[in-house]
Amino acid sequence: MTSKPRRAAGVLAAFTSLALGLTACGDSSEPAGKDAKNITLTISANSIVGGKNSAGAEWIEKWVIPRFVEAQKAKGVTAKVTFVPSGVDDEVYKTKLALDLRSKGGADVIAVDGIWVGEFVQAGYLKPLSEVAGDQANSWEGWSQIPETVQGLGSFEDKRYGIPLGTDGRVLYYNKKLFTQAGLPADWQPKSWQEILDAGAKLKALPGVTPIQINAGTAMGEATSMQGALPLLVGAGGEIYKDGKWAGASQPVKDMLDFYTKIYGGGLGDPKLQQEAKGRDKSFAEFAAGKIGILAEGDYFWRSVINPSTGIAKMADRNTTVGFAMIPAKQPGAGIRGQDFVSMSGGGVRVLNPNSKFPSQAWELLSFMHSAEAVKAELAGEARITARMDVNKEVLAGDPMLSFVTEKVLPVTAYRPPLAVYPQVSVALQEATAAAASGRSADEAAGAYQKKLEGIVGGAGNVTS
User: How does DSSP classify residue 32?
Assistant: First the structure.
């Protein structure tokens, strides 16, 4: 126990030293301005060649930097661009960035997790793109290719602070063979929560099959919030954080928890699976083995879990056996923004350092990194969802599931609030779903959640109920 504080202090001291030494473009004496002929810029990301996110680091070093420098040279500008790599735990990287920005240092273009944006804004570390780079940040061609819902990943309180990198989306996966056995359609698309329950009731007749898997409880961690609680909450018209307040024992929260009670209290889900340390992995294996009928998951499940060749729970017949459907609102029109269907997404963004000595050119670099050409180069042939619809249309043409997420899911998606206290709120939400899955009523679970929430976010005045 005693060694940890000393180690943390050492790490912080090292970061402080680095932060003071790494001033944004600090080694240039050229006057800042749009017409500067000699510029020095730096890029920071939690990636390093040969280590964490190696491919991303290689793309920056071997593709972005030489091409950007060449493009600047064609304009008569001599650009020196340096990549500052990291290959550390995300929280360590986050601490480093905070120290850099607090000391008015750091790189000019910085990759961050989208969920950190609001926290950094409230701390005074970030400013809106248009304040840093001027009007050019609003007139960029790329915004027309990024849906407003996806732009939300890099936004806070309706202002853009960064450009989204890749993103993802949540859907309902289902086993077409089990559906056929249960007398359900192979092209299933539920339009309400009741239709999900109705399908579950038919699947229940199949021996050895768990009809529905919606993640619940703390053992599943953030997967409970992102795959279960939050999509259901927005499907009931609620948001976990809105207008400066957190959702407590509100009607949408109660509706979400009531859905859990109907699944797990009604014998449509396996409550024990939600309590196991490896429960999520087990749910993957059971779905792949044809033992789960409906599973709520992200596109990661399709790409990396049941991928026939590289998956951790390979399904040789994935393309013919697995169906996917949008997550419906509680009933048509009941979702946030009056939507019939909903989802949740996550992902990273790149932001501009407000302390950059060359903010205009830093924006040129940032927007260049998010051009269609650059995004395609970063993918390096891999089928992955990007923020740009034009790129997705081209690179995902051969993957029906990822195309489905891009075309249908991203336009209706939502994001977690990018605030420092959210992880604690998320755990409280997970505990509430665990209570509902283990037999407590929605009202009881919501009441206990509200009390816990008030203690986390500073009192009842910060909670809606």
Answer: P
